[in-house]
Amino acid sequence: xxxxxxxxxxxxxxxxxxxxxxxxxxxxxxxxxxxxxxxKPLNNNIDPEILAWxxxxxxxxxxxxxxxxxxxxxxxxxxxxxxxxxxxxxxxAVAAARAKFDKDKKDMLHKLxxxxxxxxxxxxxxFYSYRxxxxxxxxPLTPESLAxxxxxxxxxxxxxxxKGETRKPEVAKTGLxxxxxxxxxxxxxxxxxxxxxxxxxxxxxxxxxxxxTVDIDVVHEIAQTAHCIAQGxxxxxxxxxxxxxxxQRYDAIKGKSLExxxxxxxxxxxxxxxxxxxxxxLMNLLLGEPGAGGSSTVSMVGxxxxxxxxxxxxxxxxxxxxxxxxxALEVRLNMLSTMAKEHWDSYRSIIDKCSLxxxxxxxxxxxxxxxxxxxxxxxxxxxxMLEIRFHMRLMGQAAGVPIEPESQTKLLDATMTMEGVLFxxxxxxxxxxxxxxVTLGNSSSNVAKEWSSLNVLAxxxxxxxxxVSLETGDPRTK
Length: 478
Prior knowledge:
The chain is α+β, with helices and mostly antiparallel strands. It has helices spanning 84-100, 103-114, 131-136, 143-147, 178-193, 210-231, 238-245, 258-267, 297-310, 312-342, 344-354, 362-365, 369-399, 406-416, 444-453, and strands at 3-14, 25-41, 53-60, 65-72, 78-79, 117-123, 161-162, 165-166, 248-251, 273-276, 283-289, 421-425, 435-440, 457-458, 469-470. The strands form three sheets. Strands 1, 2, 3, 4, 5, 6, 9, 10 and 15 form a nine-stranded mixed sheet that branches. Strands 12-13-11-14 form a four-stranded antiparallel sheet. Residues 157-169 and 206-211 have low confidence and may be disordered. Its EC number is 2.7.4.2. One of its GO terms (cellular component) is peroxisome.
């Protein structure tokens, strides 16, 4: 019987760089772009001759890749390393099952392993850049053109031939955290397949199921560990956390060595904190791909850390201002969510009106005191995002890296003047990867059209606050 699990990609809306250190938090939104892992037995029969090792087959149809690993059942090592994220997810999921099971369940696990593991991984198109393909087909840079591509479209198209040599395919990504979503989906599918956890399905409310919360915590610990080991470092962990739990406010873990992390896993010590978060009602997340080529997050983080060491006082001041502005934005958005709950009619009415106008007109649109309060909160959120962008630019200039490059600044400023746009920014570590906008009501489609005229491709991604979950079947058959 096949088990299919999925985990969402993410957008770090605030907290770029800061989320690497305590006591700073970031707002991370999970999306409807999901990574899927399908796990089933490789053979229905067990070969009585084989007891010391088994086979793991990994298929990635989008990359046209298939790898067969030989796995030692004693040491749980996989020979022939190709995809460290999946490999460590397999090793740690099996190790977790062994550690948790009594003798009877260990025997059942051993039988499952002797049948071999057949794992297929699939990422929604939104994780990858299809801009080149759209342009090559002579289609306009619109969400409709993106939607015309078949789901799980092949992504080996980035191979370029140079002087008769074919180079390794470079996969252009959109920055949604594909490795974290993939690691989480594979870990979750395996743990469910081994009956270590019982995953919630998307239709269940994950926040009220006591049992599934404990199970999801197990998925988080194993996926987070596998991801850290595969990366060879301990990052902030927000990308795996959002892939597991969904949209949230995330407080960083302190930087640790890999030995300390493994020790903490064994002893169940985790020092990150998360709080449920999602955008206020009638607000939409919109992502755009400017097509200026991607940025290396790792080298940009390195440059910022170097600057922190060389100008500690100045760095601390910028850090503090950014941290305060990030917190202020979260407070304003939560306030808007509360207003929506308490004064729904006024809230809906004023959001609808504001969605049709530029922000300088919003105040004139309010017809009663509650609407005026809501507009004040909207404008406050806008100003706070402008402040966040200002300090991120200063930090980039000081560290000598393009956190908000000039081309992005022009694009974001133009976006902020469009009708129905609450604010816009660069997600995560910034750079040339993508831009995001938060729009009001039904204004997203108009913003997408205006972006298209500025040579920006609006993606199909939207916020979806849900985390890891069990699927009813192979997503390709839907």
